[in-house]
């Protein structure tokens, strides 16, 4: 046999052996090998990327990785901190500062012990994405965006399982997934999951004897903090915030100037008291889906329970310059008032679908109510209610307070006991056949 044929035969046999080995190797081993090579090459190719495993992080769900991640973050200005897939236990808050990006491969940062917060950010030009931040029912808050911070992007991330620690100094504070303080500007929150935030103890820090929890809270921590501005929450899911005492999905309060808050295309489920509460001016609420997930199974702990509604409201408004447009508000249960206007002027409620559950008893449930105002104010001005569909309730629009320049037009209704309590506006509604029975 010639030398060329022998070489050809040996090469063919080697190739065949490689193919057999690759075929026999378990698929998981292949994926893990490819992933390890990718992570090694990825880090070596770009010196701006700091892999936390290079600093000693294990990501095995057993080792305390706090020190290693903090070391990576301390070297991360103008760089990126990468957490490969895994579970990273921490026992102290991680602080992200100027010009830093921290991200993972849907990697989990999980609380190992009780504490006040998981992450804090302070500075400008900060990005957080593709992480799961798990409080493990040990930590009070997920992310604290501190006074002086600007130009922040948080996307494709989950913040879950926050509660009041047993530590006495923290046990009566409000559990919150994301807290944005005063003096914060230009924050984008996109494609987040906020879930499982629950207060078991009264929140004495807020000054009343009730249990308070928040999915996202935008509010100064101190009276002297400056205004916050230009904050967007979009394409996100907010769920399981409770209890009914005062468990709200998104709350903005304590800011005096127009916030420029946009709440866009989000989905709300099991937000025990309400989905959205507005106590600062300058907010757009548009294209959201709010579901009343309860039906005779959501109860107060510290208020007297009257049993005539399952959620207080989908949206409560207490301040000026608020637009509520193109939202779907429905679900299984009853609202006291699905949209509750208890303060504010220059309010626009238009092109929404608003309903109580189709099989609920709603003898005291309104769809839109202009209520006695915050701190007893009873006078409002410039409120427009137009082109909404209102279904299943006592009143379509219940006017309790006095409103100057109130406009009601183009609204349709079905299955209402009363269109409105105001004779001046009773003819401003168009009856439609009872439809939309998919609301249960």
UniProtKB/TrEMBL annotation:
Residues 50-293 form the Rhamnogalacturonase A/B/Epimerase-like pectate lyase domain. Gene3D superfamilies: Single-stranded right-handed beta-helix, Pectin lyase-like (2.160.20.10). This is Rhamnogalacturonase A/B/Epimerase-like pectate lyase domain-containing protein. It comes from Peribacillus saganii.
